[in-house]
Fold DUF3221 domain-containing protein.
Amino acid sequence: MKKIWVVFLAGLIAVFFSCAGMRAKNQLEGNVTSVEFAKDGYTANVKTAKNEIYIATISRVNLGDENYRVVKAGEKVTLKGEIWKTNSEKYIKVKEIVSVK
């Protein structure tokens, strides 16, 4: 019976740390270099400390009207969302604007 609890506890700890790592991977911090407006929101180019450029899609649909805000070129932002990469570009579909400075 002790072995079952040890295995369960070890599995729970593994899940906790893997989820904590995923949260950090889904967050992006950088400076806004440009903003281009569209129908339901805008895209912002965000340059990270590693000089990587991410195209951030920020929309009312993904954030909701109460959390939606417009960032400006030159501001430092922290964004959370779904990150993916193609051969030539990096993207983030923003689900939360954590901070704007």
